[in-house]
Amino acid sequence: MERRTIGAGGLAVGAVGLGCMPMSWAYSGSRQRGEESLRAVHRALDLGSTLLDTADMYGPFTNELLLGRVLKERRAEAFVSTKAGLLVGEQHIVANGRPGYVRRACDASLRRLQTDVIDLYQLHRADPEVPVEETWGAMADLVRAGKVRALGLCAMGAQGGRRPDSRPYDSTLAQLRRVQQVFPVSAVQAELSVWSPEALHALLPWCAARGVGFLAAMPLGSGFLTGTLTPGEGFEPDDVRARHPRFTAEMMAANQPIVAGLRRIARRHGEHVTPAQVALAWVLAQGRDVIALPGTKHAHWAEENAAAAGLRLTVEDLTEVARLPSAQGSWD
C-alpha cells in the first residue's frame, strides 16, 4: 500500500488506516464480536493499513484492550494512535484536560495496549476548565519521557464558533494556533467525506501548509456512502445513527443521489469497484498529507477499504463528485 507521512518527524503509515471505534463503541452493540474484530485488525495489518486508531473512551477501555491482544504479537507492524481527554459516565461524557489526569491516562493506555510507546497521542477534546496549553504541555512531557512519539488534536466539529460570521472549524484552528506554540502538532483528526467536505475550506489547508498529517475520520459517512444501508431499515437504540438527523428514513432517501453518483463512477473503474472505494479514493485525492480512517469490525470490509488506496480517480471523476448534490439534513 502507498505510504504517507505524519508530521515533520516523517512517521510513515499506510494511506488507508483502520478506525477501531465500531468494534467496541457507538455502532450496533449486538453485532460486536471480539474474535471478528481481531480478524479485522490482523487483516488490515496484512494489507498495509498500519495506522490503528482508537481511544481510551471506546468501550470505555475495551477497544484498547482488544488492540493490545494484536499488538502483543505484531507491534512492529502497527502505528498506534490513541486519544485521551474524555471521561465516560453513566449518561454523559465530560472533558478532562488536567495534566495529572493526562499522565495517568497515558500510562493506563500503555498497559492496555501492551506497548511501551504510543506512536500518536491525540487530545480528544479540550477541557473548557483547563487552558489547552497546560494540557498540551503535559502531553509534550510524555514525548520527552519517551512514552509518546508524536501529538495530535481532534477537531471539535465543523461549527466555527458562536459568531454568525464564523467559518467551519474556526474554534479548532484557534486551538491549533495556541498549542503549536507549546509543542509541534503532528496530526489533526477531523471528519472528511464526500457528504461532509467542510474541512477542505480552512482546516486541511492549515495542515498542508505546515506538513501536519490530516486523519480523515468518517470518510464513509458512518456507512452511508457504502451504499449498503437501506432507508427506513432502522438502527439499534445504542447506535449513534439512530439519533442522527441524516439517518432518518426521509433524509437517507433524499441523499441517495450521492450514493448513485459514487456508484456511477465505480462502474467506470470496473465491475468489482464499489461506491465505498470511490468515496475513500476521493478523500485520498484531497492531499498528500491525508490518511483515510474508515472504521469497521469486519475483515472483508477492511480488505475492501485497503484496496481503495490503489484506486486513482480521474479529473472527470473528481469533477463529477464536485457536482453531486450537497447532503441534506443537519450533521454537525
Low-confidence stretches: none
The percentage helix is: 25-40%
Biggest sheet character: 8 strands, parallel
Average of the residue pLDDT scores = 94
How many alpha or pi helices? 11
Radius of gyration, in Å, reads 19 Å
Distance between the termini: 32 Å
Q: What is the general shape?
A: globular
Total number of strands? 12
Quote the beta fraction.
Answer: 15-25%
Structural class: alpha/beta
Order of helices and strands: EEEHEHEEEHEHEHEHEHHHEHH
Lateral strand order in the biggest sheet: 3-4-5-8-9-10-11-12
Folded structure, characterized:
There is one protein chain. This protein is α/β, with parallel strands linked by helices and 332 residues long. Helix content is 36%, strand content 16%. It is built from 11 helices and 12 strands. The protein has helices at 34-46, 62-74, 99-113, 132-144, 170-180, 203-210, 249-254, 256-268, 275-284, 299-307, 315-322, and strands at residues 3-6, 11-14, 18-19, 51-53, 79-84, 86-88, 93-95, 118-123, 148-154, 187-191, 213-217, 290-293. Strands 3-4-5-8-9-10-11-12 form an 8-stranded parallel sheet. Strands 1-2 form a two-stranded antiparallel ribbon. Helix 3 (99-113) crosses helix 4. The longest helix has 15 residues, at 99-113.
Summarize the structure.
This protein has helices at 34-46, 62-74, 99-113, 132-144, 170-180, 203-210, 249-254, 256-268, 275-284, 299-307, 315-322, and strands spanning 3-6, 11-14, 18-19, 51-53, 79-84, 86-88, 93-95, 118-123, 148-154, 187-191, 213-217, 290-293. By secondary structure, the chain is of the alpha/beta class. Strands 3-4-5-8-9-10-11-12 form an eight-stranded parallel beta sheet. A two-stranded antiparallel ribbon has the order 1-2.
